[in-house]
Amino acid sequence: MTDSINYAHMMQKAMQGLMIDVLKNISKDGLPGNHHYFITFNTQSDGVIIADWIKERYPEEMTIVIQHWFDNLEVNDNKFSITLNFGDNPENLTIPWASVSTFVDPSVEFGLSFKDDNQDQIPESKMVIIDEDDDEKKDAEIVSLDSFRKK
Question: Three-class SS of residue 76?
Fold first, then answer.
């Protein structure tokens, strides 16, 4: 038994769970409304499977867009795979959740940022709350958990 709770790890898993649930729903029902997603991932991470030419073009990090055309979206608890169109050339990609650094839905200004296991940082999430009765958008405050850590 440890003498502390690893809240950062628990938060990361919860945020990954949200992303997994969203993509599972899309794989079954398609994209609702104007929703679309930017997903940034580390192309060098274990388990990432992308074409060699893509890895050469994006040797460290890549952002994919799930919006107008995608196919074969398969989601499980460890990774997702998808076919995307690169200049009229469909390519299959397999992306483990551990390689994902950001997940953003710009249609509702929602985003998650995930900690890289090689970095010493707390994952943060940012969400903009839009009040349907109010045209003004309000940014949610990002709280760093560093101030609550024992030094």
Answer: coil
Distance CA 46, CA 140 (A): 33
Give 103-127 pLDDT, tens digit per residue: 999 989 889 888 755 444 433 433 3
Domain boundaries, the chain: 7-125
122, two tokens? 């707390």
Q: Other CB atoms closer than 10 Å to residue 48's CB: what's the count?
A: 18
Superfamily of domain 7-125: SspB-like (2.30.30.220)
SS (H, E, C) 28-67: HHCCCCCCCEEEEEECCCCCCECCHHHHHHCCCEEEEEEC
Q: How far is CA 91 from CA 16, 43, 72, 106, in A?
A: 24, 15, 11, 24
- What are the tens digits of pLDDT across the range 25-55? 999 999 999 999 999 999 999 999 999 999 9
